[in-house]
Amino acid sequence: MAKTHNVTEFIFLGLSSNPEVQKVCFVMFLLLYTAIVLGNLLIVLTVMSSRSLGSPMYFFLSYLSFVEICYASTTVPRLISDLLAERKAISLWGCMSQFFFIHLFGGTEAFLLTVMAYDRYVAICKPLSYTTIISWQACAFLVGAAWVGAFVHSLVDSLLVFRLPFCGPNVIDHYFCDVLPLLKLACSDTVLIGLLIVANGGTLSVISFVVLLASYVVILLHLRTRSSAGRRKALSTCGAHVTVVTLFFGPCIFIYLRPSTTLSVDKTVAVFYTVITPLLNPVIYSLRNAEVKKAMKRLWVRAMKLEER
C-alpha cells in the first residue's frame, strides 16, 4: 500500500491533563534529567581521566553512560517542555526522527549490556585468556557492532512505521512517538506490521535478555571454585550488571513483545526505561564498585585543587 500522510503533525496528551500535576511533574523531571546527565557524564569523565579504570570493563561502562545520556535526551527534554506547553504538537518528520533515535540508542544500550556480560564472562571464566580475547581491537569492534546492529534495528522499525498511512486522528496518548501509539493511529490494517515490529524489537529484547541471564548463570556456577574474596568481588560487579539489565529489559519486553494494543500503564512503564534506568545506571555502578568510587574521589580532589588555583 502506498503511504498516505494527510496528517502533518501529532498532538501528545502527555502524562497528565491536570495543570497542577503537570507543574509538579515539570520540576520532578527537570531534576531527574539533570541528575541523568550529570551522573552519567561524571562516569564518562571519571573513566577517561583515571588510569586505574583503564580496563575494557570501564571502557564499555563509559560508552553505556554516554548512550544513556543520548537515550534520555530523545524523550525527556521534550517531555519537560510539553509539561508547560498548552499545545503539545510535534511534526510528522519530528515524530519519525524521535522514533528512529529512541530505537537507535535503546538498541545500542541492549547490545552494549550484552557485550558487558560477555566481557564479565571472559574475565571470570577465562582469566588467563582475557587480554587476548578482549583486546582493545576487540573492544572497538564490539562497540562498533553494537552501533551497527542498533542502526539496522532502528532503520527497519522506522521504515515499517513510516510506510503506515496516517489520515487522522492525530492525537497520541503518550509523551513521545513510540510503536504502539502510532500503530493505533494508522488508518490501515496494522496486524502484519505489528508482528514484524514484534519480531524485530520484542524478539531482540527477549534473546538479549536470555543470553545475558545465561551468561550470568554460567558465571555463578564458575564462581563456586573461587575463594570467598574473589566470589564477593565478582558477585558485586555482576550484581550491578544484572540489576541494570533487569531494569532495562523488563519494561522493554512488556512493551514490545505483545500484540498491537495499548494499555493504561504503558506511559508509566515507558517512564521506567526512558528515565529511571538512565538515572539509576551511574548510581548502581558507582555505589557497588569501590574502584569507581575511589576514582571519583580523586577526580573531585583534582577539580578542587584546580579551582583553588
From TrEMBL:
SUPFAM superfamilies: Family A G protein-coupled receptor-like (SSF81321). The keyword Cell membrane applies. It is a multi-pass membrane protein. It is found in: Cell membrane; Membrane. The keyword Zinc does not apply. Keywords: Cell membrane, G-protein coupled receptor, Membrane, Olfaction, Receptor, Sensory transduction, Transducer, Transmembrane, Transmembrane helix. The chain crosses the membrane at residues 26-48, 60-80, 100-118, 130-156, 191-223, 235-257, 269-287. PROSITE patterns: G_PROTEIN_RECEP_F1_1, G_PROTEIN_RECEP_F1_2. This is Olfactory receptor. It comes from Bison bison bison.
